[in-house]
Design goal:
The protein is mainly alpha-helical and about 180 residues long. It has 5 helices and 2 strands; from the N terminus they run ββααααα. The chain folds into 2 domains: about 30 residues, no CATH class; about 120 residues, no CATH class. The protein is about 65% helix and about 5% strand.
Length: about 180
């Protein structure tokens, strides 16, 4: 027996069956948030924002401490060049992490392109600190492929265009309960 709606075009959401409108391939999905969902979102989102803000402040404090250490190193009679370079590269990694935290606070999602950039910077920091000549050729080859893969993902993975286009979309109206296909 076949009904007027196909099986793929019927969705059950909280005991409500909603069919696909004429001319559309996918059904509407109407969300019926319960009181528990509203309370959870009302309390957990601000709590999560406070935790992320605390992480951001801790990272900022760590960056200030590192800059103070670098300034102190300038005035010492001897300079450990390798340690100074390590701390400068550490600062670059921290800048990327703080950018990620700021992006999360602004958009409430983790930006994948920032994560890829963070992976590239952190990997290059480790390569510079250990020295390419001190690493076995297998590790150099693996790290090269890893950095190239991350670079290709960043360049050709279409991460930035999706990120920018989603952040510029207008927010749905409060009365709009369906997902448009």
């Amino acid at each position: 027996m076949q009904s007027s709606l196909s099986v793929a075009a019927v969705t059950v959401v909280n005991s409500t069956i909603i069919g696909s409108p004429e001319g559309h391939d996918c059904p509407f999905q109407v969300a019926h948030p319960t009181h528990v969902h509203r309370l959870t979102r009302h309390f957990l989102e601000p709590a999560q924002d406070i935790l992320v803000l605390a992480i951001g402040l801790a990272l900022f404090g760590l960056m200030v401490r590192t800059i103070a250490w670098l300034i102190f190193q300038i005035f010492k009679p001897t300079l450990d060049f390798r340690q100074v370079i390590a701390e400068v590269l550490f600062m670059l990694v921290m800048v990327e992490v703080v950018r990620l935290v700021i992006s999360y606070l602004r958009e409430h999602r983790v930006a994948v392109d920032f994560m890829v950039e963070l992976g590239i910077v952190a990997t290059l920091r480790e390569i510079v600190l250990r020295g390419v000549t001190d690493l076995p050729w297998q590790q150099v080859s693996a790290l090269t492929m890893f950095v190239l893969a991350l670079g290709a993902l960043l360049r050709f993975g279409d991460l930035r265009s999706n990120h920018e286009s989603e952040s510029r979309k207008p927010l749905p109206e409060s009365g709009d309960k369906g997902i448009r296909c």
